[in-house]
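From the thread on structure requests for the teaching lab: each student submitted one protein with a one-line request. Submission from student K.M.:

"Model RpiR family transcriptional regulator from Streptomyces yokosukanensis, tokens only."
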Amino acid sequence: MSCYDRRDLGLLLLRLGTGGVLAAHGAQKLFGWFGGHGLEGTGQFMESVGYAPGRLSATAAGLAETGGGALLALGLATPAAGSAASGAMAGAAAVHLPNGFFAQAGGYEYAATLGLAAAGLAIAGPGRLSLDHTLGHVLDRGWMVPVALGVTAAATAAVIGARNCRVRARTEGRQEMLFEEFDE
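Reply posted by the TA:
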């Protein structure tokens, strides 16, 4: 192998696997493909777990997963793609957090793994077997990594924070209703 080394091949495999899985999950949300529920069903679910408005939340998550995943697989705009996908996975992990770590119990293990892989790719870069490399890294500059990760972290923290407030208010409202029924 004269042109490409093990690192390039490893990054290609990681990009294809992570990006492909993310794109498929996003397509479930956006289009109902691969057994998904499309925007309507996903929007209802998003609303039920505290992401409101549900349809807009489903669209944002679906675009971040589909777009971020496809771009990661291609190795194009890698800092933005990895950041967007990792933000979507942080949102998913927040939903599963109360169930603990392991996925078999409904935990956040899977979302965290995909999110960390996407963030790792944003930081490491796509390698030489990528469109970013072919295009001279015009969409993969060093300064783009902290900017993309910083903007995504701020937006994700705001979205998850608002969601957690809604969930907390809903839970407290139910507790108050239970106390009122008990007092009667």
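TA comment: The mean pLDDT is 94. Helices lie at 6-31, 38-48, 54-74, 78-96, 109-124, 131-134, 144-183.
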